[in-house]
Amino acid sequence: MNDAKKSAKAPANNTPVVYIVDDDPSIREALVDLFLSTRTDATSFESAQDLLDNADLKRPGCILLDVRLPGANGLDFQLHLEKLGNQMPIIFMTGHGDIPMSVRAMKAGAVDFLAKPFRDQDILDAVAAAFQKDREVRLQSAANDAVAKLASTLTPREHEVMAAVVKGLMNKQIAFNLGISEITVKLHRGNVMRKMEARSVADLVRKAELLGL
């Protein structure tokens, strides 16, 4: 059973939250109280499965995850979340950590790796860094989605012209490569700039990079 009732309120889904996963109820309670004392929303769970079953992982925030969990190793759970496509930042806690374990966690994208017992300020600083990382990831994802939506309005020919333009080809070269007239290239190029809401070729190149072109 999770400790969601320890949360001070039922916050809006866009409010950052700390999801605490630890099988020790005293640690869960202490951490929830710490975060609530700083007006940071926090909810705790006794296992990884408890988190999966009850948490809204689409919310902004981070996961404070114990390495030693019943039924699931915290590092393996980190990889499981990644396979699910969840990018919520993770901070690891452990009373049995060692260097190889820490390295593995950080290489897999963990924000921090804290050995118990840790200072309140250390965990608060780690969560602040995790919240910032989460904001950056979400902003980048939103930018990517917006550009992909614009690109979906392009015709196949406009996609070809766009790819050629961002490679730095001149209209005459594009016309030759595609077997069309230069006037037609100019028309397609104008449509690309308008549909992609590109203010300049440099802006178009930036958006193309987001698309992986």
Mean pLDDT: 87
Overall shape: it is elongated
The strands making up the biggest β-sheet line up spatially as: 2-1-3-6-7
Biggest beta-sheet profile:
5 strands, parallel
Give the proportion of residues in helices: 40-55%
Q: Provide the structure class.
A: alpha/beta
Distance between the termini: 47 Å
State the helix count. 9
Order of H and E elements = EHEHEEEHEHEHHHHH
Compact summary:
InterPro entries: CheY-like_superfamily, Sig_transdc_resp-reg_receiver, Tscrpt_reg_LuxR_C, WH-like_DNA-bd_sf. The protein is of the alpha/beta class and 213 residues long. It is built from nine helices and seven strands.
Descriptive report:
- InterPro entries: CheY-like_superfamily, Sig_transdc_resp-reg_receiver, Tscrpt_reg_LuxR_C, WH-like_DNA-bd_sf.
- It holds the Pfam family Response_reg.
- The structure is a single chain.
- With 213 residues, the chain is α/β, with parallel strands linked by helices.
- The chain is 54% helix and 14% strand.
- The protein has helices at 25-37, 48-54, 74-83, 99-107, 120-151, 156-166, 171-178, 182-195, 201-210, and strands at residues 17-21, 41-45, 61-66, 68-69, 72-73, 90-94, 112-115.
- The strands form two sheets. A five-stranded parallel sheet has the order 2-1-3-6-7, sandwiched between helices.
- Helix 1 links the parallel strand 1 (17-21) and strand 2 (41-45).
- The longest helix is centred in the middle third of the chain and has 32 residues, at 120-151.
- It is elongated, with a radius of gyration of 24 Å.
- It starts with 16 loop residues before the first strand and ends with a helix.
- Residues 4-12 have low confidence and may be disordered.
